[in-house]
Design brief:
The protein is α/β, with parallel strands linked by helices. The chain has helices spanning about 1-20, 45-55, 70-80, 105-110, 235-250, 280-305, 380-390, 405-410, 480-495, and strands at about 20-30, 55-60, 60-65, 115-120, 150-155, 165, 170, 180, 210-215, 215, 220-225, 255-260, 310-315, 360, 370, 375, 420, 425-430, 435, 445, 450, 460. The protein contains 9 helices and 22 strands. The longest helix is centred in the middle third of the chain and has 23 residues, at about 280-305.
Length: about 500
């Protein structure tokens, strides 16, 4: 009798798991719409990323909520547009946590639904309550906003501190060699990229000339923590390993893994085994390394027989940038490759390439392969998965998120009716039209050579007929401009 009850209990557990698929989101950094072979790239092959597209839904009109990293991550995890909250711009490495532990997040909702939750990789949402002491327990952080486990880099690869944090402590820190970080003034007599360029293996093109770690100068100053410092060439493998470990440890229960890669953000220092994989130098080779990372996660899911009932997702935090601060031949070796695909602009830009990014969703047990032109945003992930997991949201939770799960699963061709894009100013996408608010300023960002979308007058484009946003229709369609201006004003006022 006991054995029969045990078997029945086991069967019930398996049925529960089948109804609650695992969820893996691989979130890349600075990957553009045209950087993957499944989106038309020919200069680099991305077979592991293509596998997500071939087995699932590949979106042609998916958006990060901002053209830069921190606000996109904030919006995705909270379901709230970052432009509504002060202090959610691109953060320094010593910033305080900008997520409110008292408010619901995507991982928090998944945890409430019975999922084990983990984050691996780039964080860049701040840690602690300000003036972080990297030599003691660091809180609040990921564990206070819904994650059961965390292995992360605090900010970006080009910002100090250049160490990993596991849960609440710096990994491999020697107490006798404490870490000090300062973003305003040098610390001690440590060499810097500005004063000691002879120590660099990669030189800055603009900025990035402060603390030197692993032969690369960074933003900010840092001393100590020598045993804890990361090695850039080993970072992708370390994050892949930690992701695989989380999956193995969580295989007996439904899990949610947010794997945020450093690739292909600067400094682009891929492992030597990827050098020369493309003709585009470190940027192209970093794309190949990113694809390898995705392959490692696929292999782990296959090995543990979890693939069929796992929702595998891939997207990027913003559009592409070529020269973002280091002399890595990215511009010289770009060739015919078009990182933004057919779109105008890129990272930092109000034009479409700032936020229109790759998004693929695979779930072999349910999704049938297809291409979708549904308008969807990463800000929608929280409410979409809440509905899917049968979790109700309270008033004020995920205020800008919409349930587009049927579109994400490829079961409906319709997504959102409208979406706000954020860069220098706000843009409103409504159907085939896009309106960019008047935002005076330079048309080209000098350092990155990116078209900003700045204009002293409102711009209006039909992005279906004019995908490259070349013909401004504002003068021809004042009624449409007025309609969309009024709508954007209502969205702004809707707190």
């Amino acid at each position: 009798m006991q054995r029969r009850e045990f078997l029945l209990g086991g069967a019930a557990s398996l049925m529960a798991q089948a109804s609650r698929p695992n969820v893996v989101l691989i979130y890349a950094d600075d990957i553009g719409y045209g950087d993957l072979s499944c989106y038309g790239a020919a200069a680099v092959k991305t077979p592991n990323l293509d596998r997500i597209a071939k087995t699932g839904v590949r979106f042609t009109d998916a958006h990060s909520s901002s053209a830069t990293c921190t606000p996109s991550r904030y919006s995705m995890l909270t379901g709230e547009y970052a432009w509504r909250k002060k202090g959610t711009g691109v953060l320094p490495g010593d910033a305080r946590l900008i997520l409110d532990p008292e408010k619901l997040t995507w991982p928090g909702m998944m945890k409430r639904a019975g999922y084990r939750t983990g984050v691996v990789g780039k964080w860049h949402l701040g840690l602690g309550n300000g003036n972080v002491d990297w030599n003691t327990e660091i809180r609040p952080g990921p564990l206070e906003v819904g994650f059961d486990s965390a292995f992360l880099m605090p900010a970006t690869g080009d910002r100090v501190p250049c160490v990993y944090v596991k849960d609440r402590r710096v990994v491999d820190l020697d107490p006798a060699d404490p870490i000090r970080v300062d973003y305003k003034k040098p610390i001690g007599d440590e060499p810097t990229g500005k004063k000691n360029p002879e120590l660099l293996k990669m030189h800055p093109s603009h900025g990035h000339d402060m603390a030197i770690v692993n032969g690369v100068s960074r933003i900010g100053y840092m001393t100590g923590g020598k045993k804890a410092l990361w090695v850039d060439e080993e970072m992708a493998a370390r994050f892949a390993e930690e992701g695989e470990k989380f999956i193995a440890e969580s295989k007996q229960e439904p899990f949610f893994l947010y794997l945020a890669t450093h690739g292909i953000h600067v400094p682009r220092v891929p492992n030597k085994k990827f050098e020369g994989k493309t003709k585009m130098g470190p940027r192209g080779d970093a794309i190949a390394e990113l694809d390898w990372t995705v392959g490692q996660i696929w292999k782990q899911l296959d090995r543990l027989k979890l693939t069929r009932n796992t929702i595998m997702m891939f997207s990027s935090d913003n559009g592409p940038v070529i020269d973002d601060g280091y002399k890595d031949d990215a511009v010289a070796k770009l060739g015919a490759h078009k990182p933004a695909g057919p779109f105008r602009g890129g990272k930092y830009s109000n034009f479409e390439a700032g936020t229109r990014v790759p998004l693929m969703v695979s779930w072999p047990a349910r999704i049938r392969p297809r291409v979708s032109d549904a308008l969807v945003g990463q800000v929608d992930f929280l409410r979409s998965f809440a509905g899917f997991a049968k979790q109700s949201l309270k008033s004020g939770e995920a205020p800008d998120s919409q349930d587009v799960m049927s579109a994400l699963l490829g079961e409906s061709p319709k997504g959102r009716e409208w979406l706000v894009e954020h860069a220098r100013a706000l843009s409103l996408r409504q159907g085939d039209y896009k309106m960019i608010e008047a935002n005076p300023g330079p048309a080209i960002q000098v350092n990155t050579n990116t078209e900003t979308g700045a204009n002293s007058s409102t711009q209006l484009y039909n992005v279906k007929l004019d995908i490259g946003e070349q013909k401004n229709l504002a003068g021809e369609m004042p009624g449409k401009v007025a309609e969309m201006t009024e709508m954007l004003a209502r969205v702004k006022a809707d707190q």
